[in-house]
Design brief:
The protein is α+β, with helices and mostly antiparallel strands and 197 residues long. It has 7 helices and 8 strands; from the N terminus they run ααβααββαββαβαββ. 45% of the residues lie in helices and 30% in strands. Strands 1, 2, 3, 4, 5, 6, 7 and 8 form an 8-stranded mixed sheet that branches.
Length: 197
């Protein structure tokens, strides 16, 4: 983040920052094309109120230990694990979708052997585009915003929502059980596809 902040601070030191020049430099330095993947654990606020913070923290760490290898196995890069979320970036949409399916299937198997108190439920959003990626720190871009809206705000526990624009880039889409959706959140109209794991 320090490198990004240094670019921003240097550009903002004068009277009027040259936003166009700064944007070109940031995309050159940190820009990537691919698929943003955002996983959000479900029911965490209620869980803290009912059982306390420690059981939730244990479940978050279990989710990370179980889920991060699935992201990496599909060629994804975990950019950050923040609170009960995982933010990853993939070169290809199909890899992100396959990781999401593996994640939801793994959680279903895990939950079948656990009491409700220790079950882990998650929703996942995926969108394609350009992002500024700072490995191990953060990522920014329209595709990140859309993936976050899909994963955190719109998807239900156990669901995978993929922006339609991203899903349309996958060859052999018919291999996935899917359903089209039109949604709106935060003033944004989003065309998406629900993938059945």
């Amino acid at each position: 983040m320090e490198k990004l902040f240094a670019h921003l601070d240097a550009a903002d030191a004068g009277d009027a920052p040259d936003v166009a020049k700064l944007e070109l430099e940031l995309w050159r330095r940190f820009g990537r094309k691919g698929a943003a993947f955002v996983l959000d654990m479900s029911g965490t606020s209620r869980a803290v109120r009912e059982r306390g913070i420690v059981p939730l923290l244990l479940r978050i760490r279990r989710m990370q230990r179980l889920g991060i290898p699935l992201i990496e196995a599909e060629g994804g890069e975990l950019v950050k694990a923040e609170a009960d979320n995982l933010f990853a970036f993939f070169r290809h949409v199909r890899s992100a979708v396959d990781a999401a399916i593996a994640m939801q299937r793994m959680l279903a198997t895990y939950n079948a052997a656990e009491t409700s108190e220790w079950q882990i439920h998650a929703s996942i959003g995926i969108a394609q585009g350009r992002a500024l990626v700072l490995p191990g720190q953060d990522l920014f871009g329209d595709c990140v915003n859309i993936a976050a809206k899909l994963g955190e705000d719109l998807a239900q526990p156990g669901e995978i929502l993929v922006a339609l624009q991203a899903f349309s880039r996958i060859e052999a889409r018919e291999a996935y059980a899917s359903e089209g959706l039109s949604m709106e959140v935060s003033g944004l109209a989003i065309e998406a596809v629900r993938i059945v794991p």
